[in-house]
Amino acid sequence: MPARNKPKKARTEAPSTSKIVASPKPISNSTTDAQTKKEKGIWGIGADGVNPCYIECVPTEILDIMIKLLITNQTPNQSGRGLQIDRTVHAGFTSAPVDKVAHHRLRSVCRNWAKAIDETLREVHFDGNRAPGPMFRWDENMLEEEIRVSALIDDNVDEIIPDEVRRTRLDLERIPAGVPINLTLIKPRYDADPEPKSSSRPGAGLMRPGVTNMVNSVDKRDIASLTIYDDCDSAWVQHLLDDEGEEPDQLWHDEDLAEAIAIMKNFHDVYQKMCARQPQPPKACRTRRQIRRQVALAKEEDEKVWKKLHTLRLMFSGRFSTDTIFAQLSPLKFPALRCAELHLSRDDPLHLWVLPYSQITHLTLGSHTSNFILLSMLKLARLSLESLSVRLLSEYEGWSGKYERQEPCIDFPKLQVLRVYRKTTHKKFEQFLDALECPNLRTFDITAEISGNGSLTPAARFIKRSGCALRELYIDTEDRRSLSDSTALETLMRGHSDALEVLHLVSGLLPFDWLDDLTAPHLRELDFLCFGINDRNLDPYSGKTPKPEARDFALHLFRWIQNWATGGGLDTQDYKSRHSQLAVRFCAAPHDGYYEFYDDCRTDYLDAVSPPRAIESIQNELVGAGIKAEVEWWVNRWDVSAYNAERLSEQEKVEAKQ
Q: Do the domain assignments include residue 136?
């Protein structure tokens, strides 16, 4: 440490003016070997083993925040060009949650950082696309049972272990015992046939060499969250979570209502038996051998318990499982499970996954099952659920039974977040919402990908019946136009205006009279994506009265924001704070450009242009007043020149008037 940093001695007498003080010697700029050794001893050695590291003393709490910000791949939370946000699906199913390059660079800073990262970084990600498996050729003389369609064990001891498997196992082994781990497995199995992929044929679903041993190398009692995406069936995951299982009494395809009722009776029997199962008290032992055996059995049972697993996310997109067993995730083996997300392929039966519903607070279910089975399962979780996401996909093609719900509404007393993704008939969607009642709902998110026309009407009826006060409202009804939707939106705005804080609307051009009913004193976020730009090449006016379009909606919206920010002319402290409170985003696209806007294969169809002059002018006024206002304008590529010419003519007319 330099001499100037040494503490000064306390002065015991007044300084004498008679003493001769020697002139200070010049300090050399070069550092001596002793100082360097002392400095290295204080700060530690960097990754190169020579130079000192001055950043190793960063507190662990700050280091943990830095690691998460730099290593975790953040996902956007709003719609943008070529991106559609689906809040009912975990982002880890589609993109890697961990940036492994950034992870490696941070670990190479110094030894202390490497140790701290191993202790604090809980995200471990395996990407099966980087771990190729061995191939084989199909032989007609081979029996079907000779090919493991669902390989549940990792017995490929003679195969070459891919580097991705080795790296992921090393990441797991670096984490100290007892530290919670967030494990993500993307495509742990592979299709061994070199022919074009088809997961419905024999040979699909072989384990990648070393993956099962890699997963078993970590104590399952330390896994806090488990995310698995597999483009094969669910057999291996069922075996991983529940190696006992229970055979059903019958097949499961709910082709008619009578069969669906029998299926759910079997399901309830398994569920009640699972929840009623209690740990047996230890028997009194007399000999040491009996005591040792009892201790060994207790330890073996304890190793099967997923003590820290609070989040389980599963998605399967391949063939249906050939193992017709109930996968039972009992409260005894999964005592900490609170969040469950389950997405099944078309032929996978939802009811075979028996979850500890009474303790789950966040639930996501996506399948092609009927409303009868879905609602019967939700009844079990109604008292504990705080967040529910449901993906209503198309039903089985063989479904012939008509389910007319006659039971009373299911009450969810704690539910605050409801997200519904609709890709099914309007009747099934309406039937599902009519069966729910959520008095404490705060966030409602509805996405209608197919036949979105009229989706808001049953939603408004459900909200009114629940008697809740919404704070966040997300609506995506594709590019449909419906007067009933406009009326329903007007009803929602009138009933929830006082509590509303966030409003996202993605749709075609709706009549915008409902803005007059929106007071929203607590509003902090507005996000509109309007598919309402008329194609000028088609001459939409044709000599008739021009119809409203996205430009008219934007002008009406921005004038409303101006009035909202000033409080209608009232000069109070509450209204003065609104300028910095609100963030606005308005995006416009052609009225038929829904798929062109979102589809990555059609990015050449649309071009970004400057917004119309009137909208640009009022946007500048809002920004000057302190409001965060963003505007995007997208038109068809073949329409850009016509749009720019019209915009230029508008500017010339304004300048001529001035």
A: no
Task: Please report the pLDDT score of residue 285 as a whole number.
Answer: 66
Position 611 in a domain: yes
The range of the structural domain enclosing residue 654 comes to: 524-658
- To 5 degrees, how large is the angle CA 480–CA 482–CA 488? 120
Q: Are 450 and 427 in contact (CB under 8 A)?
A: no
Q: What pLDDT band is residue 414 in, cutting at 50, 70 and 90?
A: very high
Residue 571 lies in a domain: yes
Q: Is the pTM of the predicted complex or chain greater than 0.85? A: no
The burial class, CB within 10 Å (0-12 / 13-18 / 19+), for 9 is exposed
Plot region of 205 (φ>0 → left; ψ -120 to 50 → alpha; else → beta) = left
pLDDT above 70 (res 657): no
Q: What is the tally of helices (H) and strands (E) in the chain?
A: 18, 21
Beta carbons within 10 angstroms of residue 642's beta carbon: 14
Closest to 321 measured CA to CA, from 215, 239, 216, 208: 239
Are 414 and 383 spatial neighbours (Cβ–Cβ below 8 Å)?
yes
Other Cβ atoms closer than 10 A to 264: 18
Q: Which residues contact 407 (CB under 8 A, 6 or more apart)?
A: 435
Q: How many residues does the chain have?
A: 658
Judge whether 641 and 604 are in contact, CB under 8 Å. Answer: no
All residues at 6 or more sequence positions from 288 whose CB lies less than 8 Å from its CB, including other chains: none
Q: Is residue 468 part of a domain?
A: no
Query: What is the distance between the terminal CA atoms of the chain, rounded to a whole angstrom?
Result: 72
Only one residue has tokens 């007393």, namely 413
- In the chain, how many domains are there? 1
